[in-house]
Each structure stands twice: as structure tokens, then as C-alpha cells.
């Protein structure tokens, strides 16, 4: 279940990210094959309303709606045996510490890139 939440989080990050393109679409499609249909359906319902399907849990509080969660919910998340929905906003809950610990991708080479893409000079003046 931890893996499921990681896949779902990756999917959400990609789909709500600003980067688009064939590669992203392919990555999304691949992630979607890993995620069970009922989970995807719920995620998509929220997504079509412009909402994110996942919410991080911080200090036993849903980071999305700031509702206090029960200890049982947090414990279940820690054990990773089952998915948990926030009873207030209906999002899937995940513990960000764990996903951060497991997932350590190489940092993207951001910031050094210029904001505006330089176009190649098209020396086609009439
Ligand atoms: Zn919530």
C-alpha cells in the first residue's frame, strides 16, 4: 500500500505539474497501470474537479483541509497495510516523511536554466 501511495503521488505530481509532453503522458499511463481501478476512479473524480487526490499528513492533521485525524488512521498509514481517506475532504492520505525517505531521486538541474528559451536564429530575412 505504501508503494501504491507512492505511485499515486508520482502520478499526481506529474499530472498537476507544469511539464507536459509525450514523456510525461507515457509516465502517467504507466503509473496508471499500477494503480487499482477503484483508487484511480476516486483520484480522477477529484482531479476532474481540479482537486488533488492526495493530501499529506503532518502532525496528525490533513495538510489539505487541516482536519485532525484519528490516531488509528495515522497508525494504519504508518503500518502501510491499507489506504486511508480523509473523512473531511475525501483525499487519500499519505505520510510525506516516508515517501521522502524511500524516494531519493537525483535532483533536477533546475535554476541554472534561463527562463526564456533562446530560439535558434532563423536567418531567413527577405
Ligand atoms: Zn482532509
Structure summarized in a few sentences:
By secondary structure, this protein is mostly helical.
Task: Please describe what this structure looks like.
With 126 residues, the chain is mainly alpha-helical. It is 44% helix and 8% strand. It contains 5 helices and 3 strands. It has helices spanning 2-15, 22-34, 37-48, 71-79, 96-102; strands at 54-58, 61-62, 92-94. Strands 2-1-3 form a 3-stranded mixed β-sheet. The longest helix is centred in the N-terminal third of the chain and has 14 residues, at 2-15. It binds zinc ion. Zinc ion (ZN) is lined by residues 55, 62, 64-65, 67, 86, 88-89, 91. Zinc ion (ZN) binds at residues 55, 62, 64-65, 67, 86, 88-89, 91.
Topology readout:
Blueprint lengths: L1 H14 L6 H13 L2 H12 L5 E5 L2 E2 L8 H9 L12 E3 L1 H7 L24
Parallel strand pairs: 1-3
Antiparallel strand pairs: 1-2
Helix pairs in contact: 1-2
The structure holds zinc ion (ZN).
Tag the structure with descriptive keywords:
126 residues, mainly alpha, Helix Hairpins, 5 helices, 8% strand, elongated
As a whole number of angstroms, the C-alpha radius of gyration is 18 Å
**Beta-strand percentage range:** 5-15%
Question: How many domains make up the 3D coordinates?
Answer: 1
Helix % is: 40-55%
* CATH-derived topology: Helix Hairpins
List bound small molecules: zinc ion
Let me know the number of strands. Answer: 3
Point out poorly predicted stretches: 98-104
CA-based shape: elongated
Structural class based on helices, strands and sheet pairing: mainly alpha
Strand order of the largest sheet: 2-1-3
Biggest β-sheet, characterized?
3 strands, mixed
* CATH architecture verdict: Orthogonal Bundle
Broad CATH class: Mainly Alpha
What is the first-to-last residue Cα distance? 63 Å
Mean residue pLDDT = 85
Order of helices and strands: HHHEEHEH
Helical element count?
5
Amino acid at each position: 500500500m505504501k508503494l501504491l501511495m507512492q505511485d499515486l503521488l508520482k502520478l499526481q505530481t506529474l499530472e498537476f505539474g507544469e511539464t507536459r509532453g509525450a514523456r510525461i503522458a507515457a509516465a502517467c499511463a504507466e503509473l496508471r497501470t499500477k494503480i487499482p481501478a477503484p483508487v484511480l476512479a476516486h483520484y480522477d473524480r477529484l482531479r476532474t474537479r481540479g482537486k488533488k487526490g492526495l493530501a499529506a499528513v503532518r502532525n496528525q492533521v490533513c495538510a489539505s483541509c487541516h482536519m485532525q485525524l484519528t490516531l488509528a488512521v495515522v497508525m494504519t498509514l504508518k503500518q502501510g497495510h491499507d489506504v486511508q481517506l480523509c473523512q473531511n475532504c475525501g483525499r487519500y492520505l499519505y505520510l510525506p516523511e516516508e515517501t521522502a525517505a524511500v524516494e531519493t531521486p537525483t535532483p533536477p538541474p533546475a535554476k541554472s536554466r534561463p527562463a526564456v528559451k533562446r530560439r535558434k536564429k532563423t536567418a531567413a530575412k527577405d
